[in-house]
Amino acid sequence: MVKLAQMKPVYELLDNTPQIYSYPAHSQTTVPGSIFYRSYTFHYNWINLQENQLAHCDFSRHGFMELYEHRLFVNKSRRAYSFPLRSLKELSVHFRYFIIPMITGGIVAPLALVGIFNNIFASWTGLIMLFTGIMLFYYGYKGAYQVVIESHSTSLSFFVDEKSEELGQFVDLVNLRRGLLRTA
Fold first, then answer.
1. Could you tell me if 4 and 36 are in contact, meaning their C-beta atoms sit under 8 angstroms apart?
2. Using an 8 Å Cβ cutoff, are 2 and 31 in contact?
3. Is 54 strand, coil or helix?
4. Mind giving me the DSSP string for 70-135?
5. One domain, residues 23 and 76
6. Residue range of the domain that includes 106
7. Is the domain of 161 the same as that of 87?
8. Which residue, among 184, 168, 174, 183, has the nearest Cα to 88 in the 3D structure?
9. Which pLDDT tens digit goes with each residue over 20-59?
10. Is the same domain home to 14 and 56?
11. DSSP labels for 4-49?
12. Beta-bridge partner residues of 3
């Protein structure tokens, strides 16, 4: 517990002599120490400081992203990723088609039609293959949105259940914060 008092900044003397500082703490309420906001102009990696959480966004049933002062934290399906904001190039949301199901469905469906018309397959087997090929093609064409995190060395993509306004605002906030840290 930290007591609030009329504290003034204390500047250490250069002679390294032991100093005793006392502050009057009469008639002050007691508050927990976690309410104080710590923001430093330079973040040393070897000092394990607790960073303040600036934003939180759930992007799927099993994943979320959190923005801290100097890093982006991504938790997806019990795996945690941590990215320093200074090393990020861009955070964006892209729509991607699923190419492999599209190609597979595009090959299976016409071959099933040829098999049905030339009596190579039994009618039900051919219809099931035709339906499977059409569904695979549709699944690939439907695609999905992905959050893409690009850094200087790699690029990671995370599937998103749906693109929402909250996700767009979070991406804009991360890119703004990343830009502010790069110029500082």
1. no
2. yes
3. strand
4. SEEEEEETTEEEEEEGGGEEEEEEEEE--HHHHHHHHHHHHHHHHHHHTT-S-HHHHHHHHHHHHH
5. yes
6. 99-142
7. yes
8. 174
9. 444 444 544 554 545 555 555 555 666 666 778 888 988 8
10. yes
11. ----------TT----------TT--EE-GGGS----SS--TTS-P
12. 30
Q: Which tokens in the block code for residue 139?
A: 């699944």
Task: List, in order, residues 6 or more apart from 130 with CB less than 8 Å away.
Answer: 108, 109, 112, 113, 116
Asked if residue 125 and residue 103 are part of one domain, the reply reads yes
| Cα angle, residue 166 at apex, residues 72 and 83 outer, rounded to 5° | 10
Q: How far apart are CA 57 and CA 91, in angstroms?
A: 14
Q: What is the pLDDT of residues 95-148, one digit of tens each?
A: 999 999 999 999 999 999 999 999 887 888 999 999 999 999 999 999 999 999
> In which element (H, E) is residue 68 found?
strand 63-68
Q: Which helix (H) or strand (E) holds 161?
A: none
CB 52 within 8 A of CB 68: yes
Query: In this structure, are 34 and 89 located in the same domain?
Result: yes
CA angle 52, 30, 5 (to 5 degrees): 90
